[in-house]
């Protein structure tokens, strides 16, 4: 790779996530890929150096990472590390609430680097929501955390994989709380962000958006629920008329993911988490990714959890992380061309 091309590479911050989970080892597995076929980017792993060294020794993985120094020229076939210290030693599969501030410090440092221009984008390995809350820190997920940290009033969680792009109106809510959260304002703001970011991040200037109903059979004319009639249809009609959006729906969620229906759209908007993501993860598990839309930065993530039962076993699949990195590099390149 020519020196001038290397110097212009995007720089991706990759947070290693929950130290007891598979995040550290799937980050280490990136080095295997970098040696075989260098990434068209500089990959900076944010993690505790001793954690990565211990996991590399346990699994006989390459662990020779360079210290991150933006003043140094990039080197093909290597990854770089930005060291942030654990509170206590981490062990595969054994959660420790004391390390929860470390997990959030990884996110804060990556975010700060993205906002300052040090990093082009951030990619996140999985965190464990339960142990963070056990530490006394309210945390509902990466998406919500990054929105709060950037002062973004609304962001949109979208997963991509298996030929699908599925965005959500509501994210990590108990099912009983979903109907009250599916408001005209929430749907309209989500659709505006999705419409705009399909253009900026995917180059689709006029996306065709398939919109799910909330109830079985999309309410069946009010017989199975009135949210479609009272909430969803009015906002779709207004956005079609006033903002010239191409919106199909509300559609019954049980048939929306059939090939003939999917062929009519570029992306899907589901009303709640499992309504949209069950089909997507069936189609792409292990190779899907999470994209946060609406932030002032580019952020992607793996589509799986911490997999504590696999941590330290050598069986963790880095496929989703590899796809997230490749996807992110393309988004950064598109953003640079537009800029």
Automatic annotation (TrEMBL):
Cofactor note: Binds 1 divalent metal cation per subunit. Can use ions such as Zn(2+), Mg(2+) or Co(2+).
Cofactor: Zn(2+); Mg(2+); Co(2+)
Stored Gene3D superfamilies: Isopropylmalate Dehydrogenase
Subcellular location: Cytoplasm
Primary location: cytoplasm
UniProt-listed NCBIfam families: pdxA (TIGR00557)
Protein name: 4-hydroxythreonine-4-phosphate dehydrogenase
Organism ancestry: Bacteria, Pseudomonadati, Pseudomonadota, Betaproteobacteria, Candidatus Accumulibacter
Gene it is expressed from: pdxA1
């Amino acid at each position: 790779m020519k020196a001038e091309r290397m110097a212009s590479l995007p720089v991706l911050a990759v947070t290693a996530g929950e130290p007891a989970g598979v995040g550290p080892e799937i980050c280490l597995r990136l080095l295997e890929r970098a040696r075989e076929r260098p990434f068209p980017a500089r990959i900076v792993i944010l993690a505790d150096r001793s954690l990565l060294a211990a996991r590399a020794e346990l699994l006989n993985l390459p662990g020779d990472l360079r210290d991150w120094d933006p003043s140094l020229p990039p080197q093909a076939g290597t990854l770089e590390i930005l060291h942030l210290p654990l509170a206590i030693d981490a062990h595969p599969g054994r959660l420790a609430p004391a390390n929860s501030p470390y997990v959030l410090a990884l996110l804060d440092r990556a975010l700060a680097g993205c906002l300052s221009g040090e990093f082009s984008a951030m990619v996140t390995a999985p965190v464990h929501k339960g142990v963070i809350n056990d530490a006394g820190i309210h945390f509902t997920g990466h998406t919500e955390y990054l929105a709060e940290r950037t002062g973004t009033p609304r962001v949109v969680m979208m997963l991509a994989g298996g030929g699908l792009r599925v965005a959500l109106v509501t994210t990590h809510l108990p099912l009983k709380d979903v109907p009250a959260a599916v408001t005209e304002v929430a749907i309209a703001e989500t659709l505006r962000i999705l419409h705009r970011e399909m253009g900026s991040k995917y180059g689709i200037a006029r996306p065709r958006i398939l919109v799910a109903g909330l109830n079985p059979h999309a309410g069946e004319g009010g017989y199975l629920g009135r949210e479609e009639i009272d909430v969803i249809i009015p906002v779709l009609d207004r956005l079609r008329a006033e903002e010239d959006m191409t919106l199909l729906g509300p559609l019954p969620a049980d048939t929306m993911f059939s090939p003939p229906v999917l062929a009519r759209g570029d992306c899907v908007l589901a009303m709640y988490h499992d309504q949209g993501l069950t089909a997507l993860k069936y189609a792409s598990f292990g190779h899907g990714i999470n994209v946060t839309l609406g932030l002032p930065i580019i952020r992607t993530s793996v589509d799986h959890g911490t997999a504590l039962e696999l941590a330290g076993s050598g069986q963790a699949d880095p496929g989703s992380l590899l796809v997230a990195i490749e996807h992110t590099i393309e988004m950064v390149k598109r953003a640079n061309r537009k800029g």
